GTP cyclohydrolase II
Amino acid sequence: MKSGALTSVKLPADWSVETILPIEFQGREITLEAHAYQGETDAEQMVVLVHRDPDVANGSAAIPVVRIHSGCVTGDIFHSLRCDCYQQLQAALKAITEVPLGVIVYAPYHEGRGIGLFKKIQAYALQDQGLDTVEANIEVGAPIDSRDYSLAARVLQDLGMPEIKLLSNNPAKEQALKAHGIRVAERLPLVIKPNKFNKRYLETKRARMAHKL
Ligand SMILES: Nc1nc2c(ncn2[C@@H]2O[C@H](COP(=O)(O)OP(=O)(O)OP(=O)(O)O)[C@@H](O)[C@H]2O)c(=O)[nH]1
Ligand SMILES: [Zn+2]
């Protein structure tokens, strides 16, 4: 295990394991590396999928295209139309498999922008009554966005990826990674066409959370 540049995150001795994960994607079988990481607490676990194109000479030296994806049970698993998470995840999978080196850092504990599944559904119920996504978080007594990117940054360092191309529309995510020592060479947009269920949510992200939509 390589030692990372960041020392702020206290990690257990055995904080990473690695295996191979074959997946079916768009009718094709793709074999990815799967790394699991364990943060300071049991709750902070993430899986990192790495795609390396075996046909590209020295592909591992390329600047990786990276998606840091916040867990969304309703979207990622059930393809909810209230958010854009599922489509973003699919677009990210496509993007990482089309480059010499591509990575998805999947953080289940970032569910609901860090407030967890129960409170997110509570916030949805308030949005049904007219609140927007920001107001609803405040109403349930939660921060608007409580995600912490220190572990993600530490993991990228461990993987030998101190410089990345970030798949995201969220400038705050880019800033947070930079603050934790990751160089973001480029931010690659991941814009999904709105539908009638997520139109207001996406509009609020643009207007109140500075997302580049
Ligand atoms: N609290 C809360 N969380 C939500 C809501 N809708 C989606 N989420 C969560 O928001 C997270 C995704 O964050 P987003 O703000 O959509 O996007 P982002 O990750 O900041 O930015 P991108 O990189 O551009 O996708 C997931 O964990 C979702 O579960 C909502 O209305 N309230
Ligand atoms: Zn979602």
In short: Confidence is low (pLDDT under 50) at residues 1-5. The pocket of guanosine-5'-triphosphate (ligand 1) is lined by residues 70-72, 83, 85, 88, 110-113, 115, 120, 123-124, 133, 137, 168-170, 173, 190, 201, 205, 211 (CB under 6 Å). The longest helix spans residues 85-97.
